[in-house]
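---------- Forwarded message ----------

FYI, see the Acetyl-coenzyme A synthetase record below. Original note from H. follows.
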Amino acid sequence: MTDSLVRAPETDRTHATPEQYAERYARSLSDNDAFWLEEARRLDWVTAPSKAGNWSYDPVDIRWYDDGVLNLCHNALDRHLDARGEKVALHFEPDDPESEARTLTYRELHREVVRIANALKAIGVKKGDRVTIYMPMIPEGTAAMLACARIGAIHSVVFGGFSPEALAGRIADCESRFVITADGGLRGGKPVPLKDNVDAALERPGAGVEAVLVVRHTGCEVNWTEGRDFWLADKANDADCPCEEMKAEDPLFILYTSGSTGKPKGVLHTTGGYGVWAALTFHYVFDVRPEDIFWCTADIGWITGHSYVAYGPLLNGASQVIFEGVPNYPDAGRFWDVVDKYGVSIFYTAPTAIRALMREGDGPVTSRDRSSLRLLGTVGEPINPEAWRWYHEVVGSGRCPIVDTWWQTETGGIMITTLPGAHDMKPGAAGKALFGVEPVLVDGEGKLLEGAAEGNLCMARSWPGQARTVYGDHQRFVDTYFSTFPGRYFSGDGCRRDEDGYHWITGRVDDVINVSGHRMGTAEVESALVLHPTVAEAAVVGYPHDIKGQGIYCFVTLVAGEEPDDALERELKAQVRSEIGPIATPDLIHFTPALPKTRSGKIMRRILRKIAENDYDSLGDTSTLADPGVVDALIAGRRNR
Ligand code: PRX
């Protein structure tokens, strides 16, 4: 039974009772402005806002706390110094468990941030400039983000696993003239050549920058461009560095994410609304108490690392662990070693990690103590009930509630979840809306679906953490999120709402696939494939994958005269890796003489998806195909998993 209730233990019912949730939720909608003005008091403001929401979905113009002035770095650090300057802000756990761990108190992290902020000023960064951060998961990564926020620069963090090509595209798109990186990183004992990648990226057209600040981390050899490259240590200094006064709607960061068409979009978040949303969601969802040790395993290159590593925990004055490595190095018990080492009480990770560890059996978990854990969370993709139960029963020893949090880069923070204490859990369901969030389901024509139903997941109203635009392309923002169902924000996800009002996310309904919790545009992978001279055409779809959630299945037709072989298959995979990065590596390449197309030449992806899923009985109507025979040939050539 997948939707049986799992009750939260009574001892955890201290944070928000079911009644408190219902009351607060109702008021958050009925008295929206007052609710959000009250919640804004979670932050210190230079000028408190007089009004909360000021938004419209038609035309699309989203503003929150318009006349407020604040600085988020002040809120994350400076304001804590008097009361909790000596409290731990970050426990840094390096990739190699034998290497030296580092702990930074709020005072120490503040000092680090000021030093980096001064270095940024020294290389010429000014308010409003874009700064690309391409870093391993080390304290300087978070500190660099906060340093940008401190001086009013807009950070654009690019995941350290992205290729030079992908990095170059992101630098060029937002015309970033500054990069912060490290000499190298380490993941699972393997070096990641970050500085080399930056060097390679900066050779690409459109990606020239003025200055690169380099953090000495692994001590590896690096090439140096005099006049452009600077060691952070040579530019950093302890001079006073006041926080820049920012308007609530001043941009805070850009984060690139994949969509169903074109190149990745630079999703833009602004200062006041995002800050309130990150602070509030962290507080309620993770039920945080002063003594908690929080650990979110996400990289700062993703939105989860923005909201629940860099901003949420620090805005709340919480202590957290940041981890450079991977779950299975040196062995499959590493997560739980780290939990025991720091006494982690709240643990937040992705279903793909849970599934990968589940495959290693219970031993690596049960051989560790884990008694400090009291709350578990998941994010990034639907969690299958089997993995949910393993997480609950084995990792959490049946004691810890699980929050299955649904949200997106564009939502800035958690939108749908159960709240520990307030809601019982259903394995596989994200749960209910957070305060101020009004999810609705609509059918293909945009008709509102009431009660228990399945449809397209939209939001009927704005919330402070909502993205404001796509950097440099507002029309793309409008077209992507507000044109399919006018007057509503469309998430791109399908969802079933059950009779208890719980939301079960069914996955993307657009041409986006979710690989290990990472969003991948099929169009991006296709573009990378067709760059190869032998490829005439490519169509990429997702298929169910035991560990990754979805795998990448590529249908490829070759130009006349080319013959497929293993070497070509390897070359095509390498091509995608170098264009995007290892996370986009195709799982399966299916060479086919033709793709199923309508008479007007449109590729019928629905059929390709079914073939990739081995679901031949429900191929649907194939009569509109220009050549129905193509389907039989595709089935005959189906690649085995
Ligand atoms: O399909 C949903 C899935 O991840 C997408 C958002 O991806 P991204 O912007 O990269 O952000 C991931 C981290 C917030 C969504 O459209 N998704 C995210 N969380 C869940 C989920 N699907 C099901 N259950 C979740 N808890």
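H. also flagged this: The longest strand covers residues 535-545.
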